[in-house]
């Protein structure tokens, strides 16, 4: 049996883990009151509260080598493992998993940079499970899943630039100018797996229009997900809009995680999808 190991920014529901004994999670940690704890033990609301109180990014940490080695040890030695990690554009989790896989001494571990996060990692997991059930060899499953990571598209817009500035993603000048001019950027992971700006607009309506245009340019799609952080109303509205545009797809709605909230803040709206192109 092929096992799948994802980091906690994938936000896999507990019910899903209960239904799939071969799916596992290794947590990132987040510092609350100077103590690092698994992000599953922290709420988004708490992260935002701490960030607003201190006007600083709430520190986070990738899984340690030991965390990965422990996760590998929970899988029978004869069973292969595929690790799907948060995009390396924003985290060292992928590199840490590669190092741990080497140290484990096991030859049947495949570590993949998902080139996305959140619901995008779940989309890849669904692909992986489908491939694993098709009686392909482990190496072939890994190759096909690796190819699919290049089909992932991740884009989002934020309510405020404060969190990006606090996390060092943009400079103070850009933050000030953006605030004064009320610029609302649409940020995406470009084809080189780099955080980039897709559009600079001044309203949420125009930001959503830019995201929908990018989705249309990369259609047809296999899977489409809407993600939000403390913006459920906006998320539901965008989900309904996309469901109307793409009735043949199931458009899902999920939230980000505390780690993502620490760098992006409340009000985020995003579209993460798997392009069939």
TrEMBL record:
Keywords tagged on the record: Lipid-binding
Task: Note the superkingdom of the native organism.
Answer: Bacteria
**Coiled-coil portions:** none
| PROSITE patterns, A to Z | DEGV (PS51482)
Molecular-function GO term, any one:
lipid binding
Q: Which InterPro entries match?
A: DegV (IPR003797), DegV_C (IPR043168), DegV_domain_contain (IPR050270)
Q: What is this protein called?
A: DegV family protein
Q: Which organism is it from?
A: Dialister hominis
């Amino acid at each position: 049996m092929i096992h799948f190991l994802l980091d906690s920014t994938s936000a896999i529901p507990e019910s899903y883990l209960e239904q799939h004994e071969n799916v596992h999670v290794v947590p990132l940690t987040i510092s609350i009151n100077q103590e690092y704890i698994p992000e599953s033990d922290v709420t988004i609301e708490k992260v935002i509260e701490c960030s607003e109180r201190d006007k600083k990014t709430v520190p986070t940490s990738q899984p340690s080598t030991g965390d990965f080695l422990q996760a590998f040890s929970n899988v029978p030695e004869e069973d292969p493992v595929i690790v799907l990690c948060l995009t390396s554009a924003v985290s060292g989790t992928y590199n840490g998993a590669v190092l741990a896989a080497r140290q484990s001494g096991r030859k049947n571990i495949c570590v993949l940079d998902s080139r996305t996060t959140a619901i995008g990692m779940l989309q890849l997991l669904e692909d992986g499970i489908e491939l694993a059930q098709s009686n392909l060899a482990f190496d072939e499953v890994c190759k096909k899943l690796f190819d699919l990571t290049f089909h992932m598209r991740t884009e989002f817009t934020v309510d405020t630039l404060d969190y990006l500035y606090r996390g060092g993603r943009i400079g103070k000048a850009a933050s000030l100018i953006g605030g004064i001019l009320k610029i609302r950027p649409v940020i995406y992971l470009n084809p080189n797996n780099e955080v980039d700006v897709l559009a600079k607009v001044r309203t949420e309506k125009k930001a959503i229009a830019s995201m929908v245009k990018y989705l249309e340019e990369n259609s047809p799609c296999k899977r489409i997900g809407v993600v939000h952080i403390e913006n459920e109303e906006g998320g539901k509205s965008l989900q309904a809009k996309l469901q109307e545009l793409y009735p043949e797809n199931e458009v899902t709605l999920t939230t980000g995680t505390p780690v993502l909230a620490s760098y992006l803040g409340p009000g985020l709206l995003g579209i993460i999808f798997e392009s069939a192109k």
